[in-house]
C-alpha cells in the first residue's frame, strides 16, 4: 500500500516536473524573443539599422504578444528546475504580474501611435528598457 | 602563582594598549581640506551619480525623485552581519545636516566618523579613498541641496568579532590605501578617467572583485566576479577574459551602462539594474572612459558569465 502511494506520488511529481519543464523552456524561449525584438529597436535608435516602420511595429508587437503569453507561464511548482526565475515571483505574484501588465500597456500605447523616426523611438525604447530592468532587478536570479 | 597571574594581567593591559594605539582612527590633515566648503553643487551631481550614493542611502526600491531622499534604511546582509545604511540627508538631527565639509571628507577619504570612530567598509571608503578632494567638495555641496529626511539610524546587526568597531583599525592597515589597482598608460586621458571612475567613486570592485575571509578585496582577481555579497547568485566577471566580457566591444560596454542592454539585448538585472540607473545619468564621455578601462584591465578567469 505504502509502495503504491510512493509510486503514485513519484509519478505525480515526475508528471508535474515534466509539465513545468515545458513552462520553463517556453518562457525562456519567449524572453529570448523579447531580446531579439529589443535588439531591432535598439539598433534602430543607435542608427545601426535604418529606421523601418514595419520592422519597428513588428518588434513592438512581438514584445506585446510575448508578455501576454509569458504572464501565464509561472504556475506554482515551476520555481524548481533549471530556471533563473527567482522564488520572489511566487512570493509577490501580484507585483510580478503588474510589472508584466505595464510592459503590455506600454507596448499597446506604442503600437497605437507608432513612432515615425528613430528620435521618436528613443523614449519608447527607454520605457521598454526600464521595464525589462525593473523586472530583472528583483525577479531574475543571477546564475553562475 | 600570584606573580604569574599578575604578569598575565600586565601583559593583557599592555596588549590592549598596543591594540588601541595601532587601531587609532586617523583623520585627514587639515591642510588638505582648506577648500572643502567651496565645492560646486552642479559638478557635484555628476559625482553623486558616479558614486552611486542613492543606491544605498535612499529607501529600498525608491524611484524617480524619491532617489534623492537619502534617509537611509537599506540593509546589506553580508557574511559579516547585517549593515544598515545611515541617513545622509541634510536633516540636522538624524542626517548629516550639522556636519562640516571636513567631517564629510573624513568619512569619504579616511572612513572616520565626526566623533572619531571607524566606519565599517560596507560603506565603500576603501574605493572612495581614491577620490580627489575637489570631487568630494563638489559632492558635499550637492548633498547639501538635497531635502532633509527625518529618520533615525537603525544599528547594524553584527556578531562577534565584527562588532568590535575598533578592530577596523587593523583592517584599514591591511586594506586601506589610495594607490591605483591597475597600471595603465597614464598619458591616455580616457583611460585615466576610466580608472578614476571605476576604482574611485564607481567602487565597482567592491562587488565585482572576490574578497578574502576578513573582507579585504583580492587585487589579483580584480573585477573577476565572485559570489554575491548578499548570498544568492554570482556577480559577473567584467574583465576581458572569455569568462568575463571579453567579447564585448568598448561601444557595447558603454551602451550597456547607458541603456541596460547587453550585446545580446538581454537586460541587466539584479543589483546592476540600480547601478545602471546611475550610469545612465553620467555624461557619455564618462561611460566611454569606463568602457575603455574595462577593456584594459588584466583578463582574469573567474566564474563563467551568465548565459543569455
Task: Map the helices and strands.
The complex is a heterodimer of chains A (144) and B (308).
Chain A: H1 2-46, H2 53-70, H3 88-91, H4 93-112, H5 118-139
Helix pairs in contact in A: 1-2, 1-5, 2-4, 4-5
Chain B: H1 2-22, H2 41-51, H3 53-57, E1 75-78, E2 81-84, H4 101-110, H5 125-128, H6 133-143, E3 157-158, H7 168-175, H8 189-199, H9 205-208, E4 226-227, E5 234-235, H10 250-259, H11 271-279, H12 284-296
Helix pairs in contact in B: 2-6, 4-6, 8-12, 10-11, 10-12
Plain-language structure description:
The complex is a heterodimer of chains A (144) and B (308). Chain A has 144 residues and is mostly helical. Chain A has one domain: Cytochrome c/b562 (Four Helix Bundle (Hemerythrin (Met), subunit A)). Chain A has five helices and no strands. Chain A has helices at residues 2-46, 53-70, 88-91, 93-112, 118-139. In chain A, helix 2 (53-70) packs antiparallel against helix 4 (93-112) and helix 4 packs antiparallel against helix 5 (118-139). The longest helix of chain A has 45 residues, at 2-46. The radius of gyration of chain A is 19 Å and the shape is elongated. The model of chain A has no long low-confidence stretch (mean pLDDT 91). By secondary structure, chain B is mainly α. Chain B has two domains: 23-175, no CATH class; 189-296, no CATH class. In chain B, 38% of the residues lie in helices and 5% in strands. Chain A binds chain B through residues 35-36, 38-39, 42, 46, 84, 125-126, 129-130, 132-137, 140-144, and chain B through 228, 232-236, 255, 259-261, 264-271, 273-274, 276-277, 303-304, 306-308.
Amino acid at each position: 500500500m505504502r509502495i503504491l502511494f510512493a509510486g503514485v506520488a513519484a509519478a505525480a511529481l515526475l508528471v508535474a516536473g515534466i509539465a513545468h519543464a515545458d513552462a520553463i523552456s517556453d518562457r525562456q524561449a519567449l524572453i529570448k524573443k523579447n531580446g531579439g525584438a529589443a535588439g531591432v529597436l535598439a539598433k534602430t535608435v543607435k542608427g545601426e539599422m535604418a529606421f523601418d516602420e514595419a520592422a519597428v511595429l513588428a518588434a513592438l508587437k512581438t514584445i506585446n504578444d510575448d508578455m501576454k503569453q509569458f504572464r501565464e507561464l509561472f504556475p506554482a511548482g515551476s520555481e524548481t528546475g533549471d530556471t533563473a526565475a527567482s522564488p520572489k515571483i511566487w512570493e509577490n505574484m501580484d507585483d510580478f504580474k503588474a510589472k508584466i501588465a505595464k510592459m503590455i500597456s506600454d507596448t499597446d500605447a506604442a503600437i497605437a501611435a507608432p513612432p515615425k523616426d528613430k528620435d521618436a523611438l528613443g523614449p519608447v525604447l527607454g520605457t521598454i528598457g526600464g521595464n525589462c530592468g525593473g523586472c530583472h532587478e528583483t525577479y531574475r536570479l543571477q546564475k553562475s | 602563582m600570584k606573580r604569574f597571574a599578575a604578569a598575565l594581567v600586565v601583559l593583557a593591559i599592555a596588549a590592549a594598549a598596543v591594540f588601541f594605539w595601532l587601531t587609532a582612527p586617523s583623520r585627514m590633515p587639515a591642510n588638505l581640506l582648506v577648500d572643502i566648503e567651496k565645492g560646486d553643487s552642479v559638478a557635484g551631481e555628476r559625482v553623486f551619480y558616479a558614486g552611486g550614493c542613492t543606491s544605498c542611502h535612499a529607501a529600498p526600491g525608491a524611484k524617480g525623485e524619491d532617489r534623492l531622499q537619502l534617509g537611509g534604511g537599506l540593509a546589506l546582509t553580508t557574511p559579516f552581519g547585517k549593515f544598515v545604511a545611515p541617513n545622509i540627508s541634510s536633516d540636522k538631527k538624524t542626517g548629516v545636516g550639522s556636519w562640516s565639509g571636513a567631517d564629510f571628507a573624513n568619512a569619504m577619504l579616511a572612513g572616520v566618523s565626526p566623533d572619531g570612530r571607524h566606519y565599517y567598509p560596507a560603506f565603500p571608503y576603501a574605493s572612495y579613498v581614491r577620490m580627489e578632494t575637489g570631487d568630494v567638495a563638489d559632492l558635499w555641496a550637492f548633498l547639501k541641496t538635497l531635502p532633509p529626511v527625518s529618520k533615525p539610524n537603525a544599528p547594524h546587526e553584527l556578531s562577534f568579532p565584527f562588532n568590535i568597531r575598533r578592530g577596523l583599525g587593523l583592517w584599514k592597515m591591511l586594506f586601506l590605501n589610495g594607490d591605483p589597482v591597475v597600471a595603465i598608460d597614464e598619458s591616455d586621458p580616457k583611460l585615466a578617467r576610466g580608472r578614476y571612475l571605476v576604482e574611485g567613486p564607481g567602487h565597482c570592485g567592491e562587488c565585482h572583485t572576490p574578497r578574502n575571509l576578513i573582507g579585504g578585496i583580492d587585487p589579483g582577481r580584480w573585477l573577476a566576479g565572485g559570489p554575491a555579497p548578499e548570498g544568492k547568485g554570482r556577480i559577473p566577471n567584467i574583465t576581458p577574459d572569455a569568462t568575463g566580457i571579453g567579447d564585448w566591444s568598448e561601444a557595447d560596454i558603454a551602451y550597456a551602462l547607458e541603456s541596460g542592454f547587453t550585446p545580446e539585448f538581454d537586460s541587466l538585472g539584479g543589483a546592476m539594474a540600480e547601478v545602471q540607473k546611475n550610469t545612465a545619468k553620467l555624461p557619455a564621455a564618462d561611460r566611454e572612459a569606463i568602457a575603455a578601462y574595462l577593456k584594459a584591465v588584466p583578463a582574469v578567469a573567474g566564474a563563467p558569465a551568465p548565459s543569455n
